[in-house]
Amino acid sequence: MVENTTMEKLFGGTMMSPIVDPYSVYGRLRKEVPVIAVDTMLGVNYLVTRYDDVATVLRDAERFSSRGNARGIGMVMGRTILEMDGKEHIRHRSIIAPFFSPLAMRSSMPPVVVEIVNELIDKFAAGGAADLVPEFTFIFPMRVIAEIIGVPIDDHSAFHRMALDLISITEDPAKGFEAAESLSIYLKPLIERRRVEPGDDLLSKLLHAEVEGHKLGDEEVLGFLRLLLPAGADTTYRLTGTCLWVLLDNADLMGRVREDRSLIDDLIDEVLRWESPVQLVSRETTCDTHLGELEIPADQIVSALIGSANRDESHFDDPDLFDIERNNESHLGFGFGQHFCAGSHLARLETKTAINALLDRLPKLRLESDAGVQIVGMAFRSPNRLPVRFD
Ligand code: HEM
After folding, report:
1. Alpha-carbon separation of residue 218 from 193, 195, 223, 379 (angstroms)
2. Angle in degrees, 0-180, between the axes of helices 344-361 and 263-274, rounded to the nearest 10
């Protein structure tokens, strides 16, 4: 019998470690063991590394169910659309879809995002220097989500603190669980208010929506809210940070993007492929099945490694090269299939707005000379810091 390996043996760290280069390991796995069984604290996890196999896992919900998310992220979120399949998933997802639609991104959302982004830049614009990660990228997507949910403006900073603790669940589980509880305590009176006096925010919509003739219970509403925080904030800040780092590290590209802002769309897609902010998504096998050359028993956790699929040489030419001119339409940075990211249009709008505002408002934006920036992480990846100067 072949012995399973461990994350430590493969990567020299765990899923949550500040791993600098997972890509050489992914490359070896794609070539030698494209589907590999790994022992983890939560049991055996089958890592899937090739583009075609990752796409199969995400497309085939009959064999690879999203119910596996209940065992990981669901432990703090509660039951959310991330762990639902089939019709139940479609019915619940359609409640929030209008808030993140292309129409909303063209009409109600741009002024909200522009205002939040500029308010944050106002705080450091006169100082000539800032670390864009803690002072900007980390904060603005959280503020946008608070606004969409309908958190009153006076509560934004308290809400932000709880939300930050919630998304620190990966580094500090005790703090994360405590924050999930505090967030529920904070949100309950707001839920009661919106039940009686609905507004046009997402929370009111969740409270008054019906799924098969039934309104959602408090726990279901809370689950949605707890999901949207990390889904909407912990991801977009990473995409924005990596886009900025790529520009700050490449004067020629920075010059071209300054001149022609339409290139920001290509930049965003190439970053989603080349340094996918979300590197993996989980599924659970519903039956004994096979993938690549491996037999996987029923009820096993499968990790579809988006970050590896997006660097697969059989799908993308010279995949380690960052090239905004390449054809990368088929990247899996926002996932694939039924659970394709519900907030992809918002993430694009936020990132584009942030880059445009920084380039417009901070002349000669450049990295500090000894910046020491690294893109780190395994499950999620982004720059650890972005210390910059400007005139
Ligand atoms: C760069 C930013 C983002 C990235 C890279 C990203 C990535 C992803 C990925 C890979 C999935 C698929 C999960 C799976 O298949 O299990 C997903 C799902 C989801 N994302 Fe995003 N996301 C981003 C931004 C956002 C934003 C701004 C929102 C809005 C609040 C959002 C809301 C969601 C939701 C609700 C789901 C679950 C969809 C479902 O289960 O049907 N995401 N995201």
Report:
1. 13, 11, 9, 30
2. 120
Residue with tokens 């001119």: 325
Interval 261-296: pLDDT, tens: 999 999 999 999 999 999 999 999 999 999 988 999
Calculate how far, in angstroms, residue 113's C-alpha sits from the geometric centre of ligand 1.
Answer: 18
| Helix, strand or coil, per DSSP, at residue 333 | coil
| Greatest alpha-carbon span in the chain | 64
Domains in the chain (CATH in brackets) are 5-389 (1.10.630.10)
Q: Whose CA is nearest to atom 41 of ligand 1?
A: 339
Q: Which residue has the tokens 């700050």?
A: 248
Question: For residue 73, what are the contacts with CB-CB under 8 A and spacing of at least 6?
Answer: 82, 230
Cα–Cα distance measured from residue 283 to residue 64, given in angstroms and rounded to the nearest whole number: 5
289, 63 Cβ separation under 8 angstroms? yes
Q: Looking at the whole model, is its pTM more than 0.90?
A: yes
Q: Which two tokens stand for residue 375?
A: 């893109």
What would the pLDDT profile of 51-83 be if each residue is shown by its tens digit? Answer: 999 999 999 999 999 998 887 777 777 789 999
Which residues' Cβ are closer than 6 Å to ligand 1? 66, 81-82, 93, 100, 145, 227-228, 231-232, 235-236, 239, 277-278, 281, 333-335, 339, 341-343, 346-347
Kindly report the backbone phi and psi dihedral angles of residue 204, in degrees, each rounded to the nearest multiple of 5, phi listed first: -60, -40
| Distance from C-alpha of 8 to C-alpha of 24, rounded to nearest angstrom | 15
Query: What is the number of residues in the chain?
Result: 391
Nearest-atom number in ligand 1 for the CA of 283 is 16
* Inter-residue contact 97 to 339 (CB < 8 Å): no
The strand pairing partners of 302, in sequence order, are: 46, 283
Q: What's the 48 CA to ligand 1 centre distance in angstroms? A: 20
Pocket test of ligand 1: the residue of 101, 140, 235 to mutate, having most ligand atoms within 8 Å of its CB, is 235
